[in-house]
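Retro notes, item 3 of 5
We never archived the inputs for the iron/sulfur cluster complex last cycle. Fixing that now. Sequence and ligand:
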Amino acid sequence: MGNSKGLQGQWQRTSIANVRVAFGTGVLLGLWRGQLTVAPTTAHFLTYYEGRCSANCKFCPQAREATADLRMLSRVIWPRFELEKVLTALKKNSNKFERVCIQAVNHPNVVDDLCGLVMCVRNACGLPISVSCQPLTKQDIERLVESGAERVSIALDAVTPELFEGIKGGSYTWQAHLEALEHARTIFSNRVSTHLIVGLGESEQDMVERIQLLHGRGIIIALFAFTPIAGTPLSGHPQPDVASYRRIQLARFLIVNNLSRAERMRFENERIVDFGVEQDVLRETIESGEPFRTSGCPGCNRPFYNESPRGPIYNYPKKLSSQDIVTIWSQLGVT
Ligand code: SF4
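Structure as it came back at the time:
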């Protein structure tokens, strides 16, 4: 590592001597053993911090007031591991991945930690690096680029200001998130994404209209299905209805590929009843299976991040089989 001395110094000031590694990533890196139904195509890391995130998102096991297991993010376990060992393993195994994603919990020095981790990963392999973090200042986003990040994601999670306030308020504001996405766009151009969670209480129409607005601003949209986690205030909240999730996936795909627009779609009781495209386009799009695969940065498949491999599957982590397409048709209830 060319500048390892400088990074060593940085490790002492910050907390990146350790990093959290998503379970499937650790298996592919050979850090531990485990069975994988589908291998992750992105290596996922999370900043390690001895304590909880300073924010308080109601769905998140890392949140300030959550009592959940700190090794969890969504339904995935992220054990702590020494960074040096992780980097050695990444050097040897980078050909197993298409991308690295570094996620952050909010804590003092988070930007230093993120920049340090990005530099270390960049020195260990040639994979493109995504950073998924809270809203940062323009200067801090510039630091991420200088460190070697290829793209950035700032998660809105909720799609209306009211839901956002109820679920992420106190620590974050809707306006600051939107502004941070705009700032990120000026720096990362078309390499900015956001995560949206389906099932937080929004309607299908809310979701589709937000997707259209964000797409219009050049933001890439990664869809997640709400996943209840023990020890969080939303632990008793249900996962979204699968049929509704399918309609939203289909609407997202049509919008981001400029095949339709929210204004061309029709809603009844805020539920999508017409996708605003000809029947043959709709049929071909569904038959391709593409709308139902994991969405977000290129090369990110997040296997079973929101669901058990036993199903129901919300985001398919690989190309759908013909049997999967039959299942999708029955879930959508369109013929
Ligand atoms: S879409 Fe995947 S790679 Fe991109 S920020 Fe989200 S989790 Fe990371």
